[in-house]
Amino acid sequence: GNNCFCVDNDSKKIAGLKKGLIPIYEPGLTEIVRHNQKLGRLHFTTDLKAGVDNSLIIFLAVGTPPAPDGSADISAILSAAAEIAGRLADYRIIATKSTVPVGTYKKVTDIIKSRTKAPFDYVSNPEFLKEGAAVEDFMRPDRVIIGTTSPAVRKTMKQLYSPFMRRASRIIFMDHASAEMTKYAANTMLATRISFMNE
What we know:
single chain, alpha/beta, Rossmann fold, 3-stranded parallel sheet, two-stranded parallel ribbon, UDPglc_DH_bac, UDP-Glc/GDP-Man_DH_N, UDP-glucose 6-dehydrogenase
């Protein structure tokens, strides 16, 4: 398994997670969290520097709620990227899991470059998890989308995800913008299917 540091600025949430208290209900999640805590592979902290220092791949998984004009509010993504950049000392891969508009990768990389001289690579790696089936979807994904132009990063991300894949061909590589668009396209398709089913 992999060692994982989960960072959040909500100290009450982190305190609960350290006790194995999960603030949401997902079948099987509590058992997985507690098991990996006992094995010393899963850590919860408010210390961002500790998370950055102990990780090779840093996943950004923050909300992108609708702004008043209906567009996605990516301020939390940009803020998190800036905070991480301020703590980078060595090479890291920074990957976004959140649903973001096409072109967000450019804004994120620009912010990181403006705040650190440390080397890094950026990956667009959107999640495709269903509420109520998130554990199953993560452990047995039907596809993993990875947006990167770096052969070295492709190799690292493939090593990370391969143990979860029944078929290696379902790890799909593309550029950053295409990965961001793929997530929006999938969401649009699902919304359309639900609309037709409700007719």
